[in-house]
Design brief:
There is one protein chain. It is built from 17 helices and 41 strands. The strands form 10 sheets. Strands 13-12-9-10-11-14-24-22-19 form a 9-stranded mixed sheet, sandwiched between helices. The protein has an 8-stranded antiparallel sheet with strand order 28-27-26-33-32-31-30-29, covered by helices on one side. Helix 4 packs antiparallel against helix 5 and helix 12 packs antiparallel against helix 13. Among the domains are: 100 residues, Rossmann fold (3-Layer(aba) Sandwich); 114 residues, 2-Layer Sandwich (Glycoprotein, Type 4 Pilin), CATH 3.30.700; 76 residues, Beta Barrel (OB fold (Dihydrolipoamide Acetyltransferase, E2P)), CATH 2.40.50. The radius of gyration is 27 Å and the shape is globular. Helix content is 25%, strand content 31%. The protein is an alpha+beta fold.
């Protein structure tokens, strides 16, 4: 029996495992880097052990330190979560050799699937359909396009799509560098690239007695940079016959390596229903909540049961309804998915259940006789409640936290269950649109636009969804230009109200009061659509907006403003922070940057300066001072958040300054290069 468990991970997956452990009466142990000293997963745990350092390489990827932490804290088991060392066979064996229970598959099974090259050969021998493997050195024109993949990794790292032979060498080099940095193994290979394929995966669960469950399929086709963004269960493309074939292939894959515990077998499917093996993730997946909500199973509890030696019943619970999950990232989709760092001032979603672990069914329900203690005697709230929509939030962040450049920028997973796919999509879009996310640019608007897109609602999705439907349109703000202008009016009036509250010299008079007519008060904000200048006057009849005579102003406080046209009135909630004003309304959330009337000279930068979008290390420089460059040409690369980020020329011109070199560490806003436009009049 497991009594004290260490989670060798961080963020929301550590908190997810802790949730089930608390319900099982298991003491929890967290490990944390110095950057995560006050992180939620650290404070959630019963015991926390420090791993000195801030980078993943110095902390969460140090198997020796994690095992030392487990022994020092008196843990008797280790759960790896996902990412970091979760699919490292050497780490799994070291945990077992230390006398600890490993909550995962055997080291041999991890090793068998750890190399994508070797695992594809193993799967082919087991009768699972696979795509041919191509050696990058022998790729020909007839093979194009191809996808470069890291043999030892996943999550989109070390992956590149190649359309021409000319670009193949550079892309292979970049993929190898990224794979080496992320997984410690630079080995890459190529396979045929299906631009409009569909990513279908099967959740498996297996015990040590030969029972293997195939718990339905998930579709994860909507991706960016080969990383999943939207996941759902069941897949809208899979019919019963295809489901049977998927289950048979996934079960054969698990049986071929004597698999134990939770795992996922991933396939690339074509529109005709054919599919090929991609890889097997020998761990719990990021998207496991959608399977939990459609089956009513607690997959973490099942992992613990199997690690303790219990047997699974012969058949699992059936699938009910539909679940959709989105990954909420601190990133800017409109600007090459640029990761964001900084303070997360406020983060709330309406009517959510934290981690949403299914509630136990009455004693005597199925599974009890098999010895399963908590995993299969679980029924999710919607199965008990007869169809109510369930909104679940799995998050490693809360308002007041700071997102750093050291780790992945995923803020949370938001998951919705509903009786039908359409209801789930609508409820999830509404929950995201109503969320208050202040302080960082996120992909929230993109997610809502995807969930409301006619092609998504019709189930017409693929891995090329963003290319097919236009990222510019999908990433557009939920608030249009008129809504942004109204939000700026609300921000200005709320700021004026705040100034009146702070007035101490003369009280009882409204801010901006004059005994004779004067110029209107003015404020300026930078909005997504551009600069917005606001002019307003206070009159005997109330506040009047200067450039919108039809607009009426109702209640005005420091946090709430009412604006109307005709008989239609909207309420705006305003939250002001030192660097940003966030305005929420049914018209869409808007973040506004106040424009300083008298900016300090020392914060000005030269025209044409390229500023670092996030903290990172310069890993490659492709130009020198004096070089002529063209718009879009790569100048240098930064490495941060486990990914490489390309910095390109904004216009045709000359590199007139290059203050950085390979190895330099830069902070947000640091000048990386200055490109003087070739035509200054065209690029003022």
């Amino acid at each position: 029996m497991i009594s004290r468990l260490l989670v060798a991970n961080r963020g929301e997956i550590a908190r997810r495992v802790f949730r089930t452990c608390r319900e099982r009466g298991i003491t929890t142990v967290a490990v944390h880097s110095d950057a995560d000293t006050r992180a939620l997963h650290t404070t959630d745990a019963d015991i926390a052990v420090r791993l000195p350092g801030v980078t993943a390489a110095d902390t969460y990827l140090r198997a020796d330190l994690i095992i030392e932490a487990a022994l020092a804290a008196g843990a008797d088991a280790v759960h790896p979560g996902y990412g970091f060392l979760s699919e490292n066979a050497t780490f799994a064996q070291a945990v077992i050799d230390a006398g600890l229970t490993w909550v995962g598959p055997s080291p041999d099974a991890i090793d068998a699937m750890g190399s994508k090259i070797a695992s594809k050969k193993l799967m082919a021998a087991a009768g699972v359909p696979v795509l041919p493997e191509l050696d990058p050195a022998t790729v020909t024109e007839a093979d194009l396009p191809v996808l470069i993949k890291a043999s030892a990794g996943g999550g989109g790292r070390g992956m590149r799509v190649v359309q021409t032979l000319a670009e193949l060498p550079d892309q292979v080099e970049a993929a190898r560098a990224e794979a080496a940095a992320a997984f410690g193994d630079p080995t890459v290979f190529c396979e045929p690239y299906l631009a409009t394929g569909r990513h279908i995966e099967v959740q498996v669960m297996a015990d040590t007695y030969g029972t293997i469950w195939a718990l339905g399929e998930r579709e994860c086709s909507i991706q960016r940079r080969h990383q999943k963004v939207v996941e759902e269960a069941p897949s809208p493309m899979v019919d019963p016959a295809m489901r049977d074939r998927l289950h048979a292939a996934a079960t054969a894959a698990a049986a071929a390596i004597a698999y134990r515990g939770a795992g996922t077998v991933e396939f690339l499917a074509a529109d005709d229903g054919s599919f090929h093996f991609l890889e097997m993730n020998t761990r719990l997946q990021v998207e496991h909540p959608v399977t939990e909500l459609v089956t009513g199973l607690d997959l973490v509890a099942l992992q613990l049961d199997i690690a303790e030696g219990h047997a699974l019943p012969l058949t699992p619970l059936p699938v009910h309804g539909h679940a959709i999950e989105v990954r909420l990232y601190a990133e800017d989709p409109a600007h090459t998915w640029r990761p964001q760092t900084g303070p997360l001032h406020t983060f709330t979603l309406p009517a959510t259940s934290a981690f949403g672990v299914p509630t136990p069914a009455p004693v005597g329900s199925f599974g009890e006789s098999a010895g399963i203690e908590g995993g299969v005697r679980a029924v999710s709230p919607k199965l008990q409640g007869g169809g109510a929509v369930v909104v679940r939030l799995d998050s490693g962040f809360a308002g007041g936290d700071v997102v750093t450049a050291h780790y992945d920028p995923m803020l949370a997973k938001v998951i919705v269950w509903a009786p039908t796919r359409g209801q789930a999509a609508r409820a999830l879009a509404a929950a995201l649109a109503q969320a208050r996310i202040h302080g960082l640019v996120t992909n929230r608007d993109l997610l809502v636009n995807v969930l409301r897109h006619p092609a998504f609602l019709a189930g017409r999705i693929s891995t090329a969804f963003f290319d097919q439907h236009g990222l510019d349109m999908l990433a557009r703000p939920l608030a249009d230009e008129d809504a942004q202008r109204l939000s700026a009016y609300a921000a200005a009036l709320a700021a004026s109200a705040a100034e009146r509250e702070r007035a101490t010299v003369v009280t009882g008079l409204p801010g901006g009061w004059r005994n004779v007519a004067s110029a209107p008060q003015t404020r300026a904000y930078q909005a997504p659509a551009g600069r917005i200048d606001v002019g307003y006057r206070r009159t005997r009849d109330g506040v009047r907006i200067e450039d919108d005579a039809e607009l009426t102003v109702g209640e005005v406080t420091t946090t709430r403003v009412e604006l109307g046209r005709g008989n239609v009135r909207h309420a705006f909630t305003v939250a002001a922070y030192p660097d940003v004003v966030c305005v929420d309304s049914v018209l869409g959330p808007v973040s506004l940057r106040p424009v300083e009337r008298f900016p300090e000279a020392e914060v000005q930068v030269a025209s044409g300066s390229l500023l670092a979008p996030l903290p990172g290390a310069v890993i490659r420089v492709a130009v020198a001072e004096g070089d002529q460059v063209t718009a879009g040409q790569p100048l240098l690369w930064l490495e941060a958040m486990k990914m490489q980020h390309e910095i390109t020329a904004p216009t045709d011109g000359t590199v007139t300054s290059l203050p950085v070199a390979v190895g330099h560490q830069v902070e947000v806003g640091a000048v990386l290069a200055v490109v003087t436009p070739a035509d200054p009049e065209a690029h003022p």
